[in-house]
Design brief:
TIM Barrel, homotetramer, alpha/beta, about 325 residues, eight-stranded parallel β-barrel, globular, Alpha-Beta Plaits
């Protein structure tokens, strides 16, 4: 385990951590860098795992919603913001079922330059409208550092997509804003690399980072990506940050979203991010993986039970 | 979806399936081969999934235990049979906690020829003793077709390991015995290949086949293998066979076995196969991934709750 | 095969291509989009491959050096620009051995935020000095769109790194400059995705694009990346762009650079990009993979023979 | 580097190796096991690589043909033995073009039990006939230990396929025969695992082992397998055994066989194994990857030039 101390940590803080580690039967190896102090905790994995470091778990707060710790959070919405009507209708579905945050992409990273690239600023305005009506905080993706100001006006959480996990420019700039960040794991990034990318944000003083497993690329062609659920307990061992799972993009198919969401919750995830749409057949983008609006509240109820298995509670709608 | 008809199926049986498929709003495409008749079901995935084919789900019966359908089964024991004392003690732990079957390897496939290769026939005798004492049916691996008779004397379920998933000689011979088979997915085998290997057994008239996901090889070096839990719902869509998950070998670490077992059960697996040992530190083989005997009954209780989430019940000890 | 017509193509141009395709025994399927016209060539692979489309192969010109067609080009230099002395000494080695272009990174994408991130603009100035002295054109990486103007002042070829292969902002902006681009394949990007990323540059009217294979991520841990040399003939079949191979980063070891360079040249690559350093043991970055300066001219001689096998010639130093 | 001493090695032999290692500037770490003595050579890779251990390189001799050392060998023939006419015609093509050995499968490992499984013993008899007529030694695959005697009557080299790389039963039995072995790397086996499997054969006293790279499974779907040519120099560093490359199965396409063969030879392979057929369109199995008989002698001439690049010579037809 590696403990990265805040820049504001005093020598006494560092010593307090060392003492706790040693009381737990492990030993501490301190590296003082120019910028940060890192304490490596060395010892038997099971002992190390049980050392309680004060405030060890980061709980991200977004407009009254808590992500991490004993909380289980659902982030839901359409893949892409496509029209006022669909956006508002989806927002109401999401709110009524008790989900915590609303997602929707205004800027879409697309493999082909000839595909629909998102509504851009017009999409951001629709997200603002949905937020005004439902009170749900907004999660939306930033792709270009030049769009940062526009995105900051609307986004309660800035999403950094899989393709941008190692876009260090973007990581650093988003770190500087202090705004909560949802950082998606790259298609073939190791967990170490994901944590190092998170470090680019943390290093700027922004500790509001959520890690997101969204499927990795393997030899298996039976599905779009292989959802790596073992990443949940392993990331939680290596880091204090909340871990969210996106089963929609990994599966690419609606019928796999429920079983994979239950599995993620049972394995201890702090939340899921899923897609829902009032008429998936007509969605501009990724319709086949969107949950049908009429099934969404059932989905939430099942999810609640799975989260309870891992000792987590969905937050009541205030 | 592909329906492979039994060799004993009559024309009327085939027509009955076709009628049911067409009533479900899908269309059927029949290929009559020399050996078997295969009915391809073509149509919208969601409709196809909801067509109930009579006896569609195979439920494997092993000495009164049922694997598949509404049942959730735990197969537990040491990685390798190492001594009379450890074997009997583990068998009692497994039985007392209510697990369904006892596992233990007498023949061990090892990467290096210089590693311990298992106790062989002496190991089989210890498995027999454990069975006599506890009444638990035995799951054990067969590696060499020349050991088939010896293994058949003890094994209630013959395990075919990941390295032998495409050992067609072994698949065919085991198919001929009619004995239930646990077929592990190869380290980098696709689901289609796993199903084709199962077909080698089924083709000999042996329908008692369980498929086992045990982790695949990917770029991630944070754990031994990447457990592919999306395989559970997808295998169940493509096939009528029960699906079991082995979280111990994928993780290689005890602390990941519980969360991954809960996730497997929540995703709809028909069972798990795990390792437990009275003194993992002294195990000859794979100790770090064995659950501690003293934790095993807690583990079973948690598992029961997760299986319930997916509508499955652990069988009461008769 | 897919032929993307220039935006300036007239109907007559499109018909000329169709005629040629049909004379070759294949058939053409034309899709006219808003932006471009794409002609799909359908038929037996071998016939399709032998249809000569006028100007089919792009030859990139950089300050008198030609990359593509019958030419074989070597791009060499230190991994990162680290000091005036090392930069100038390496530049002389590269020039004296007859290599075509000089590489060196001023901006370095690093997994960890705590690693050396490159000299930045000071590095660009050292590259300019090396170019002034040796006359070698410069290849250097751009990571942040805000550095574009500074990089354009020095770079004859703009390198886009593997991590930025799907940074669509960067691809588009670099496309607009018209400056030659070296586009590296992402660690786990398919060839189709690489070509789609190239399309982001081409679409802006910049046809000076070189594709670069630099190793992909696989399960094999024996080396850093697996160099995928089959990508050379396959990219050349799917596209008209030159293909360059970077064996240094894939191998991570000096002793593998020569055999992999010879293999790349024998397989028909249009060039290689390699690292060399006067004192690899003292290099700030990636020293173990840098060819020793004293071996570089031997390396070039061997490479020339391998390129000749595939019918390509190293350009004489003018 | 690891040196495994023969069982017949005396203490003086072991000391001679140690002395040579230490004279080379490296240090030796000796482990004496019950069965073999292994000497680990520790030191700077470049120094270690240049230590010349007497008889370090295994050269396999098959009926006057030498594989390994300064020799380059071509093994060619149809994928599967399908008829007397095709077999004999192909054998003549192979002999006339100067290839060293004739390949052909009588037993075929097939993913589906419903695919053609090879002619079996009738196929072996056709191989014998082809050998009688052309004098070419035969390479053919063994899948089932029960076919060993039949295969031994015809095979000069026993091929163990990718799916059987970890079939330890087969490895051990083939080791006992003393017959030369061509061991193919598994689809997702690491080089370490390949070497360990070779060790199963060597341990039985059979040192006539050739390693064969035939493509690994990766995320790339553009071709059947990714040919891993970096395996050539790395296997040669880790082991003294000859390394052969099979470009036909990796590519699955005729047009990639020549460039990949040239690349393999340029990278230092000791040989290639390729498929050729008089009428690929009519081949029962893998026709699209078979070289056309009429192109085969050109292919051999190009290959000779590439082998020369790496300092190897094709053997003259005696």
């Amino acid at each position: 385990m590696m403990v990265v101390m805040k820049e504001s940590a005093t020598l006494a803080d560092v010593e307090a951590v060392i003492e706790r580690v040693e009381m737990g039967g492990a030993s501490a190896h301190v590296s003082r860098g120019e910028l940060v102090t890192v304490i490596g905790v060395i010892g038997d994995r099971e002992h190390v795992g049980s050392i309680e470091l004060e405030g060890a778990r980061t709980v991200v707060e977004v407009d009254g919603r808590r992500i991490g710790g004993p909380h289980f959070t659902t982030i839901a919405g359409p893949c892409t913001v496509e029209s006022r009507e669909v956006m508002l209708e989806t927002a109401r579905t999401v709110r009524d079922a008790g989900a915590g945050l609303l997602r929707g992409g205004a800027y879409k990273p697309r493999t082909s330059p000839y595909s629909f690239q998102g509504l851009g600023e017009a999409g951001l305005r629709l997200l603002q409208e949905a937020k005004d009506e439902t009170g749900l905080p907004i999660v939306t993706e930033l792709m270009d550092v030049r769009d940062l100001d526009a995105v900051l006006e609307v986004a309660d959480v800035i999403q950094l997509g899989a393709r941008n996990m190692q876009n260090y420019t973007l990581l650093t700039e988003v770190g500087r804003t202090g705004r909560p960040v949802l950082l998606k794991r790259g298609l073939s990034s190791t967990l170490d690399e994901l944590l190092m990318s998170a470090e680019y944000v943390l290093k700027e003083g922004n500790e509001q980072v959520m890690l997101c497993e969204r499927g990795i690329r393997t030899f298996e062609t039976g599905y779009r990506f292989t959802l790596d659920l073992m990443a949940i307990p392993v990331l939680k061992e290596l880091s204090h940050l909340p871990v969210v799972v996106d089963p929609s993009h990994a599966a690419g198919r609606r019928d796999l979203v429920l079983p994979m969401s239950l599995a993620a919750a049972a394995a201890g995830a702090d939340g899921v991010m899923v897609e829902t749409h009032p008429a998936p057949e007509e969605a501009i983008c990724d319709g086949p993986q969107a949950l049908r609006a009429e099934d969404f509240s059932d989905y939430m109820r099942r999810l609640e039970q799975a989260a309870a298995l891992a000792g987590k509670e969905l937050q009541p709608v205030a």
